[in-house]
Amino acid sequence: MSPAMGIALHDDVATRLRRGRQRYTPARRTLVALLHRLDRPHTTAELLDADPSMSQSSLYRNLAVLEQADVVRRLTGSDDAARFELAEDVTGDHHHHLVCTACGTIEDIEVAQAVEEAMHDAIDHAADERGFTTELHRLELLGTCTTCA
Amino acid sequence: MSPAMGIALHDDVATRLRRGRQRYTPARRTLVALLHRLDRPHTTAELLDADPSMSQSSLYRNLAVLEQADVVRRLTGSDDAARFELAEDVTGDHHHHLVCTACGTIEDIEVAQAVEEAMHDAIDHAADERGFTTELHRLELLGTCTTCA
DNA sequence: TTTACTGCAAAGGGTTTGCAACATG
DNA sequence: CATGTTGCAAACCCTTTGCAGTAAA
User: Which of A1, A32, A95, B144 is the most buried (most CB within 10 A)?
Assistant: First the structure.
């Protein structure tokens, strides 16, 4: 990642937070930078381990604030611990997840555009029939990762 | 559902449990019948509410046993409470889920076979590149259900 | 008669919150 | 200075487990 991209990211986050009358504090900036640096979704335990200067309660609160500002996305994998990553709104990419049922690790994955479109069409069609308003779709591939195989 | 179908279901479950040297007790039969009767995945709280004769610990234990026997499927939705349904191995159908981000309710949904195949192809292809062994895929549509709209 | 199952109550673990002090607009 | 934010510790909630008794193969 380029430094310039990092600045654009922070500017974007700052804007999104201001919309909700919330502040882009040093702690939140550190958290966003950490999530940006890590290449996969991580649990709060992993985030605290990566930066012990954060307090647990503030971490949870900041993740909640950032989630509400569409900066962070919360994932519920195979185990009970939630995992967090930067939201697609902020990173610009669209991806799905490989979830290891053995260790709970989540990796990002991208699928062909044709598949995305097919899913999208089927989704909207099926959901509309039920009066369900879809916001987004989530495709997860459950299996075993290389280290657990 | 026909009574005959219910019997076939119970026979199937009994067989699957025997494979793991486990017993199809009255409590488990009641639980399977309850999951069969309910048309959507439900939380343990809802299951206990639907049949207060079950004890909480036995419910959790039996759900775990039935999950391991591929009779029950555990879903982790948008909120923290897990939801349970009969596994596709037992019901014979293949479906995905509409998850309401407002109330957490999960509804079943089926998508066109062509979409299933496209997803399956993309999945295997992308996962293989990462050395990831896929067991199954999970497509979830997040949005707002009719009662929460 | 050995092994699995049940119920109760207590513990566990991830997440949230009350409160007082602090920092920011 | 009014409002948002932080850290600590305690509370919370869903889930799991120890144990002693019961039922099934």
Answer: A32
Q: What token pair was written down for A48?
A: 């605290």
Its pTM stands at 0.89
Q: What angle do CA B106, B118, A110 make, to 5 degrees?
A: 80
What is the rounded CA–CA span in Å between residue B20 and residue B33? 20
Q: Are B134 and B119 in contact (CB under 8 A)?
A: no
Q: Nearest by CB to B138, which of A136, A140, A146?
A: A140
Rounded distance between C-alpha atoms, residue A140 and residue A145, angstroms = 13
Last residue of a domain, one of B52, B72, B92: B92
Q: What is the mean pLDDT of residues B130-141?
A: 87
Chain B CB within 8 Å of residue A141 CB: yes
Residue-wise pLDDT tens digits, B36-55: 999 899 999 999 999 999 99
CATH no. for residue B50?
1.10.10.10
Burial B29-56 (b: 16+ CB within 10 A, else e): eebbebbbeeeebbbbeebeeeeeebee
Domain holding A135: CATH number? Answer: 3.30.1490.190
Please give the Cα distance from A145 to A88 (Å, whole number).
Answer: 23
Q: Which tokens sit at B101? A: 């981000």
